[in-house]
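Ticket 4471: requesting a sanity check on a complex prediction with S-adenosylmethionine. Repro inputs:
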Amino acid sequence: MDLLETIKSKITQSNERSISFYEYMNLALYDPTYGYYSRAKKKVGKDGDFYTSSSVGPVFGEVLGDIFADMLQTLTPEEPLYLVEFGGGTGGLMADILEEWKRKSPGLIERIRLVMIEKSSYHRALQEQKLRAFPVQWLDSWESLCFSASGIRGIIYSNELLDAFPVYITEWTGTEWVEIRVAWNEEERRLEEVRSKLAHAELESYLGNEDIHIPKKQGFRVEINLDAGKWVEAISEGFTHGYLVTIDYGFLRPELYIPARSNGTLMCYRQHIASDDPLVDPGEKDITTHLNFSFLIEKGEETNLNQLGYYNQSQFLINGGILSKLQSHDETDPFQGIVSKRNRTIRQLIMPGGMGETFKVLVQGKGEVNRQVLGLKQQGWV
Ligand SMILES: C[S@@+](CC[C@H](N)C(=O)[O-])C[C@H]1O[C@@H](n2cnc3c(N)ncnc32)[C@H](O)[C@@H]1O
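Returned C-alpha coordinates:
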Protein backbone atom coordinates (compact mmCIF):
# COMPACT_ATOMS: atom_id res chain seq x y z
CA MET A 1 0.00 0.00 0.00
CA ASP A 2 1.52 3.38 -0.94
CA LEU A 3 1.21 6.51 1.19
CA LEU A 4 -1.90 7.90 -0.48
CA GLU A 5 -3.64 4.53 -0.05
CA THR A 6 -2.60 4.43 3.63
CA ILE A 7 -4.02 7.94 4.13
CA LYS A 8 -7.24 7.08 2.26
CA SER A 9 -7.74 3.95 4.32
CA LYS A 10 -7.28 5.89 7.61
CA ILE A 11 -9.86 8.40 6.36
CA THR A 12 -12.32 5.66 5.35
CA GLN A 13 -11.95 3.86 8.67
CA SER A 14 -12.51 6.97 10.79
CA ASN A 15 -15.99 7.80 12.13
CA GLU A 16 -15.80 11.35 10.78
CA ARG A 17 -14.56 10.22 7.33
CA SER A 18 -11.61 12.56 7.89
CA ILE A 19 -8.32 12.67 9.81
CA SER A 20 -6.81 15.62 11.65
CA PHE A 21 -4.19 17.63 9.77
CA TYR A 22 -1.82 16.51 12.55
CA GLU A 23 -2.34 12.85 11.64
CA TYR A 24 -2.01 13.65 7.95
CA MET A 25 1.27 15.61 8.41
CA ASN A 26 2.64 12.87 10.65
CA LEU A 27 2.02 10.28 7.91
CA ALA A 28 3.29 12.53 5.10
CA LEU A 29 6.58 13.22 6.92
CA TYR A 30 7.15 10.21 9.17
CA ASP A 31 5.32 7.13 7.82
CA PRO A 32 8.10 4.55 8.42
CA THR A 33 8.18 3.49 4.75
CA TYR A 34 6.84 6.30 2.58
CA GLY A 35 7.08 9.39 4.81
CA TYR A 36 9.20 12.24 3.45
CA TYR A 37 11.83 11.93 6.20
CA SER A 38 11.94 8.11 6.02
CA ARG A 39 12.61 7.88 2.30
CA ALA A 40 16.16 7.52 0.98
CA LYS A 41 16.21 10.75 -0.97
CA LYS A 42 18.43 13.79 -0.49
CA LYS A 43 16.61 16.55 1.35
CA VAL A 44 19.11 19.13 2.61
CA GLY A 45 21.43 21.16 0.33
CA LYS A 46 21.83 21.97 -3.37
CA ASP A 47 20.50 18.67 -4.79
CA GLY A 48 17.85 18.40 -2.09
CA ASP A 49 14.70 20.38 -1.33
CA PHE A 50 15.92 23.10 1.05
CA TYR A 51 19.02 24.69 2.57
CA THR A 52 19.64 24.95 6.30
CA SER A 53 22.18 27.23 7.98
CA SER A 54 24.47 24.25 8.54
CA SER A 55 24.30 23.22 4.88
CA VAL A 56 25.65 26.50 3.50
CA GLY A 57 29.13 25.98 4.97
CA PRO A 58 31.04 24.93 8.11
CA VAL A 59 31.15 28.43 9.66
CA PHE A 60 27.74 28.05 11.34
CA GLY A 61 28.92 24.89 13.15
CA GLU A 62 32.27 26.47 14.00
CA VAL A 63 30.59 29.40 15.77
CA LEU A 64 28.19 27.06 17.57
CA GLY A 65 31.23 24.96 18.57
CA ASP A 66 32.83 28.04 20.19
CA ILE A 67 29.57 29.00 21.91
CA PHE A 68 28.96 25.47 23.24
CA ALA A 69 32.57 25.13 24.49
CA ASP A 70 32.10 28.37 26.43
CA MET A 71 28.73 27.22 27.84
CA LEU A 72 30.19 23.88 28.95
CA GLN A 73 32.90 25.71 30.91
CA THR A 74 30.19 27.19 33.15
CA LEU A 75 29.01 23.72 34.25
CA THR A 76 30.92 21.91 36.98
CA PRO A 77 32.41 18.77 35.52
CA GLU A 78 31.97 16.37 38.46
CA GLU A 79 29.32 14.31 36.65
CA PRO A 80 29.19 13.46 32.94
CA LEU A 81 28.33 16.37 30.66
CA TYR A 82 26.40 15.79 27.44
CA LEU A 83 26.15 17.46 24.04
CA VAL A 84 22.91 16.24 22.48
CA GLU A 85 21.67 17.13 18.99
CA PHE A 86 18.05 16.47 18.02
CA GLY A 87 17.17 15.95 14.35
CA GLY A 88 20.71 16.36 12.99
CA GLY A 89 19.80 15.72 9.32
CA THR A 90 23.00 14.82 7.44
CA GLY A 91 25.19 15.06 10.59
CA GLY A 92 27.07 17.99 9.05
CA LEU A 93 26.36 20.39 11.91
CA MET A 94 27.63 18.06 14.64
CA ALA A 95 30.70 17.30 12.47
CA ASP A 96 31.49 21.02 12.07
CA ILE A 97 31.11 21.60 15.82
CA LEU A 98 33.43 18.68 16.65
CA GLU A 99 36.03 19.76 14.05
CA GLU A 100 36.07 23.19 15.73
CA TRP A 101 36.53 21.56 19.15
CA LYS A 102 39.38 19.45 17.75
CA ARG A 103 41.15 22.63 16.61
CA LYS A 104 40.39 24.91 19.54
CA SER A 105 39.36 22.91 22.61
CA PRO A 106 41.53 19.80 22.75
CA GLY A 107 40.26 17.18 25.19
CA LEU A 108 36.64 18.34 25.02
CA ILE A 109 35.55 15.59 22.60
CA GLU A 110 36.85 12.90 24.96
CA ARG A 111 35.32 14.56 28.04
CA ILE A 112 31.82 15.24 26.72
CA ARG A 113 29.27 12.51 25.94
CA LEU A 114 28.09 13.07 22.40
CA VAL A 115 24.56 11.96 21.53
CA MET A 116 22.45 12.24 18.37
CA ILE A 117 18.69 11.72 18.67
CA GLU A 118 17.23 11.13 15.21
CA LYS A 119 13.86 9.80 14.17
CA SER A 120 14.61 9.11 10.48
CA SER A 121 16.58 5.93 9.78
CA TYR A 122 17.72 7.47 6.46
CA HIS A 123 19.20 10.51 8.24
CA ARG A 124 20.65 8.36 10.99
CA ALA A 125 22.58 6.33 8.39
CA LEU A 126 23.94 9.59 6.85
CA GLN A 127 24.97 10.79 10.31
CA GLU A 128 26.74 7.52 11.16
CA GLN A 129 28.74 7.86 7.96
CA LYS A 130 29.58 11.54 8.49
CA LEU A 131 30.52 11.18 12.15
CA ARG A 132 32.38 7.86 12.03
CA ALA A 133 35.61 9.49 13.28
CA PHE A 134 33.95 10.71 16.49
CA PRO A 135 32.71 8.85 19.61
CA VAL A 136 29.02 9.59 19.04
CA GLN A 137 26.11 7.52 20.40
CA TRP A 138 22.75 7.34 18.58
CA LEU A 139 19.38 7.11 20.30
CA ASP A 140 15.88 7.35 18.90
CA SER A 141 14.31 9.25 21.75
CA TRP A 142 15.04 11.59 24.65
CA GLU A 143 13.28 9.15 26.96
CA SER A 144 15.86 6.43 26.23
CA LEU A 145 18.67 8.86 27.16
CA CYS A 146 16.90 9.86 30.39
CA PHE A 147 16.36 6.18 31.17
CA SER A 148 20.08 5.42 30.90
CA ALA A 149 21.28 8.41 32.97
CA SER A 150 19.96 10.02 36.13
CA GLY A 151 19.49 13.68 35.22
CA ILE A 152 21.14 15.09 32.11
CA ARG A 153 23.63 17.97 32.38
CA GLY A 154 25.09 19.81 29.42
CA ILE A 155 23.74 21.22 26.16
CA ILE A 156 20.83 20.11 24.02
CA TYR A 157 20.46 21.79 20.66
CA SER A 158 18.49 21.56 17.44
CA ASN A 159 18.45 23.36 14.11
CA GLU A 160 15.16 23.31 12.20
CA LEU A 161 13.71 20.43 14.20
CA LEU A 162 10.49 21.76 15.69
CA ASP A 163 9.24 23.35 12.43
CA ALA A 164 9.02 19.78 11.10
CA PHE A 165 6.76 18.56 13.94
CA PRO A 166 3.16 17.80 12.90
CA VAL A 167 0.60 20.50 13.69
CA TYR A 168 -3.15 20.92 14.01
CA ILE A 169 -4.70 23.64 11.85
CA THR A 170 -7.53 25.80 13.18
CA GLU A 171 -9.54 28.59 11.58
CA TRP A 172 -11.73 31.42 12.90
CA THR A 173 -15.14 31.34 11.19
CA GLY A 174 -16.20 34.76 12.44
CA THR A 175 -17.99 33.28 15.45
CA GLU A 176 -15.93 30.27 16.56
CA TRP A 177 -12.76 28.26 16.05
CA VAL A 178 -12.96 25.14 13.86
CA GLU A 179 -10.40 22.50 13.02
CA ILE A 180 -9.20 21.91 9.46
CA ARG A 181 -9.18 18.16 8.78
CA VAL A 182 -8.30 16.07 5.74
CA ALA A 183 -10.87 14.06 3.74
CA TRP A 184 -10.95 12.20 0.41
CA ASN A 185 -12.97 13.60 -2.48
CA GLU A 186 -13.90 10.51 -4.49
CA GLU A 187 -15.42 12.41 -7.39
CA GLU A 188 -12.33 14.53 -7.97
CA ARG A 189 -9.98 11.80 -6.71
CA ARG A 190 -7.99 14.07 -4.45
CA LEU A 191 -7.47 14.92 -0.79
CA GLU A 192 -9.35 17.97 0.44
CA GLU A 193 -9.78 20.11 3.53
CA VAL A 194 -12.95 19.85 5.62
CA ARG A 195 -13.95 21.91 8.66
CA SER A 196 -15.13 20.39 11.91
CA LYS A 197 -15.61 21.24 15.60
CA LEU A 198 -12.41 21.43 17.68
CA ALA A 199 -11.41 17.84 18.48
CA HIS A 200 -9.99 18.18 21.95
CA ALA A 201 -9.56 20.38 24.94
CA GLU A 202 -5.84 21.03 24.41
CA LEU A 203 -6.61 22.93 21.20
CA GLU A 204 -9.22 25.05 22.99
CA SER A 205 -6.88 25.81 25.83
CA TYR A 206 -4.06 26.75 23.40
CA LEU A 207 -6.35 29.12 21.48
CA GLY A 208 -7.63 30.57 24.76
CA ASN A 209 -4.06 31.52 25.62
CA GLU A 210 -3.37 33.13 22.24
CA ASP A 211 -6.78 34.76 21.89
CA ILE A 212 -6.04 38.44 22.62
CA HIS A 213 -3.16 38.46 20.13
CA ILE A 214 -5.12 37.10 17.15
CA PRO A 215 -6.91 39.48 14.79
CA LYS A 216 -10.41 37.99 14.70
CA LYS A 217 -10.82 38.14 10.96
CA GLN A 218 -12.95 35.50 9.26
CA GLY A 219 -10.71 32.78 7.84
CA PHE A 220 -7.70 33.61 10.07
CA ARG A 221 -5.66 30.42 10.48
CA VAL A 222 -3.56 29.30 13.43
CA GLU A 223 -1.36 26.22 13.31
CA ILE A 224 -0.97 24.52 16.68
CA ASN A 225 2.27 22.68 17.39
CA LEU A 226 1.37 20.93 20.65
CA ASP A 227 4.26 18.47 20.20
CA ALA A 228 6.80 21.32 20.35
CA GLY A 229 5.44 22.28 23.79
CA LYS A 230 5.51 18.64 24.94
CA TRP A 231 9.09 18.36 23.69
CA VAL A 232 10.20 21.35 25.81
CA GLU A 233 8.39 19.87 28.84
CA ALA A 234 10.00 16.45 28.35
CA ILE A 235 13.48 17.98 27.97
CA SER A 236 12.97 20.04 31.10
CA GLU A 237 11.88 16.99 33.09
CA GLY A 238 15.05 15.03 32.35
CA PHE A 239 17.44 17.99 32.46
CA THR A 240 19.14 19.04 35.70
CA HIS A 241 21.70 21.65 34.61
CA GLY A 242 22.46 23.23 31.29
CA TYR A 243 21.39 24.99 28.13
CA LEU A 244 18.66 24.17 25.60
CA VAL A 245 19.42 25.93 22.30
CA THR A 246 16.61 25.94 19.73
CA ILE A 247 17.33 27.43 16.29
CA ASP A 248 14.38 27.68 13.94
CA TYR A 249 12.07 30.06 12.14
CA GLY A 250 9.21 31.57 14.04
CA PHE A 251 8.08 34.56 16.04
CA LEU A 252 6.92 35.78 19.42
CA ARG A 253 3.12 36.16 19.57
CA PRO A 254 2.78 39.84 18.59
CA GLU A 255 4.72 39.20 15.37
CA LEU A 256 3.19 35.81 14.63
CA TYR A 257 -0.42 36.94 14.45
CA ILE A 258 -0.34 39.80 11.98
CA PRO A 259 -2.85 40.19 9.12
CA ALA A 260 -0.14 39.26 6.57
CA ARG A 261 -0.09 35.79 8.15
CA SER A 262 -3.85 35.30 8.12
CA ASN A 263 -3.42 32.08 6.09
CA GLY A 264 -1.02 30.75 8.72
CA THR A 265 2.63 29.95 8.11
CA LEU A 266 2.54 26.46 6.62
CA MET A 267 4.85 25.94 3.64
CA CYS A 268 6.05 22.98 1.58
CA TYR A 269 9.47 22.66 -0.05
CA ARG A 270 10.42 20.51 -3.00
CA GLN A 271 13.58 21.03 -5.05
CA HIS A 272 13.91 24.53 -3.58
CA ILE A 273 10.45 25.57 -4.75
CA ALA A 274 8.08 26.72 -2.03
CA SER A 275 4.35 26.02 -2.22
CA ASP A 276 1.37 25.97 0.13
CA ASP A 277 -0.37 22.80 -1.09
CA PRO A 278 0.41 20.14 1.55
CA LEU A 279 -2.36 17.80 0.33
CA VAL A 280 -0.72 17.28 -3.08
CA ASP A 281 1.92 14.53 -3.40
CA PRO A 282 2.21 13.53 0.28
CA GLY A 283 5.64 12.09 1.12
CA GLU A 284 7.32 13.90 -1.77
CA LYS A 285 7.99 17.22 -0.04
CA ASP A 286 8.82 18.82 3.26
CA ILE A 287 5.98 20.46 5.20
CA THR A 288 6.86 23.08 7.81
CA THR A 289 5.31 25.75 10.01
CA HIS A 290 6.81 28.67 11.91
CA LEU A 291 7.21 28.28 15.66
CA ASN A 292 5.37 30.19 18.33
CA PHE A 293 8.42 30.99 20.48
CA SER A 294 6.26 32.61 23.19
CA PHE A 295 4.59 29.23 23.73
CA LEU A 296 7.97 27.45 24.00
CA ILE A 297 9.26 30.06 26.47
CA GLU A 298 6.16 29.62 28.66
CA LYS A 299 6.33 25.82 28.52
CA GLY A 300 9.92 26.02 29.76
CA GLU A 301 9.20 28.53 32.52
CA GLU A 302 6.43 26.29 33.90
CA THR A 303 9.16 23.79 34.80
CA ASN A 304 12.12 26.03 35.73
CA LEU A 305 13.69 25.92 32.28
CA ASN A 306 14.12 29.66 32.01
CA GLN A 307 14.65 31.90 29.03
CA LEU A 308 18.26 33.15 28.93
CA GLY A 309 18.10 34.80 25.53
CA TYR A 310 16.01 35.13 22.38
CA TYR A 311 17.81 36.57 19.37
CA ASN A 312 17.64 36.55 15.64
CA GLN A 313 20.35 34.34 14.17
CA SER A 314 22.54 37.32 13.12
CA GLN A 315 22.74 38.69 16.62
CA PHE A 316 23.40 35.28 18.18
CA LEU A 317 26.21 34.50 15.72
CA ILE A 318 27.72 37.97 16.11
CA ASN A 319 27.59 37.52 19.91
CA GLY A 320 29.34 34.21 19.31
CA GLY A 321 32.18 35.86 17.35
CA ILE A 322 31.28 35.11 13.71
CA LEU A 323 32.72 38.44 12.52
CA SER A 324 36.18 37.43 13.75
CA LYS A 325 36.02 34.59 11.22
CA LEU A 326 35.90 36.98 8.25
CA GLN A 327 39.23 36.93 6.40
CA SER A 328 40.78 39.47 4.10
CA HIS A 329 42.03 38.26 0.74
CA ASP A 330 43.60 39.71 -2.38
CA GLU A 331 43.57 38.78 -6.02
CA THR A 332 47.09 37.27 -5.95
CA ASP A 333 46.25 34.82 -3.17
CA PRO A 334 45.83 31.30 -4.68
CA PHE A 335 43.28 30.50 -1.90
CA GLN A 336 41.20 33.60 -2.51
CA GLY A 337 38.32 31.52 -3.94
CA ILE A 338 38.03 29.54 -0.71
CA VAL A 339 38.34 32.64 1.46
CA SER A 340 35.79 34.64 -0.47
CA LYS A 341 33.36 31.69 -0.44
CA ARG A 342 33.71 31.51 3.35
CA ASN A 343 33.12 35.24 3.66
CA ARG A 344 30.04 34.92 1.45
CA THR A 345 28.70 32.17 3.73
CA ILE A 346 29.16 34.43 6.77
CA ARG A 347 27.28 37.19 4.97
CA GLN A 348 24.49 34.75 4.07
CA LEU A 349 24.15 33.62 7.70
CA ILE A 350 23.87 37.12 9.16
CA MET A 351 22.41 39.34 6.43
CA PRO A 352 19.15 41.08 7.38
CA GLY A 353 16.28 39.95 5.14
CA GLY A 354 17.75 36.44 4.79
CA MET A 355 18.75 33.60 7.08
CA GLY A 356 20.09 36.03 9.69
CA GLU A 357 16.66 37.49 10.25
CA THR A 358 14.35 34.58 9.42
CA PHE A 359 15.95 32.24 11.92
CA LYS A 360 15.67 32.85 15.64
CA VAL A 361 17.65 31.38 18.50
CA LEU A 362 16.02 30.63 21.83
CA VAL A 363 18.37 29.74 24.69
CA GLN A 364 16.74 28.31 27.81
CA GLY A 365 18.63 27.25 30.89
CA LYS A 366 18.17 25.17 34.01
CA GLY A 367 20.22 24.98 37.21
CA GLU A 368 23.77 26.36 37.29
CA VAL A 369 23.83 28.40 34.08
CA ASN A 370 25.38 31.74 33.21
CA ARG A 371 24.13 34.54 30.97
CA GLN A 372 27.66 35.84 30.42
CA VAL A 373 28.58 33.23 27.82
CA LEU A 374 29.34 33.49 24.12
CA GLY A 375 26.16 33.81 22.10
CA LEU A 376 24.25 35.46 24.94
CA LYS A 377 26.73 38.19 25.89
CA GLN A 378 25.93 41.08 23.59
CA GLN A 379 28.74 41.90 21.15
CA GLY A 380 28.00 44.57 18.56
CA TRP A 381 24.58 45.06 17.11
CA VAL A 382 22.91 44.30 13.79
C1 LIG B 1 14.51 19.93 8.62
S1 LIG B 1 15.49 18.60 9.10
C2 LIG B 1 16.80 19.48 9.92
C3 LIG B 1 18.14 19.00 9.51
C4 LIG B 1 19.37 19.51 10.25
N1 LIG B 1 19.14 19.85 11.62
C5 LIG B 1 20.06 20.65 9.53
O1 LIG B 1 20.35 21.67 10.14
O2 LIG B 1 20.35 20.51 8.33
C6 LIG B 1 14.58 17.91 10.46
C7 LIG B 1 15.21 16.68 11.08
O3 LIG B 1 14.56 16.37 12.32
C8 LIG B 1 14.31 14.96 12.39
N2 LIG B 1 13.22 14.76 13.37
C9 LIG B 1 11.93 15.10 13.24
N3 LIG B 1 11.24 14.81 14.37
C10 LIG B 1 12.14 14.30 15.25
C11 LIG B 1 12.07 13.84 16.59
N4 LIG B 1 10.91 13.85 17.27
N5 LIG B 1 13.19 13.38 17.18
C12 LIG B 1 14.37 13.38 16.51
N6 LIG B 1 14.50 13.80 15.23
C13 LIG B 1 13.41 14.26 14.60
C14 LIG B 1 14.01 14.60 10.95
O4 LIG B 1 14.11 13.24 10.74
C15 LIG B 1 15.09 15.42 10.23
O5 LIG B 1 16.33 14.75 10.25
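Notes from triage: The two ends are 52 Å apart (CA to CA). Leaving this open until the requester confirms.
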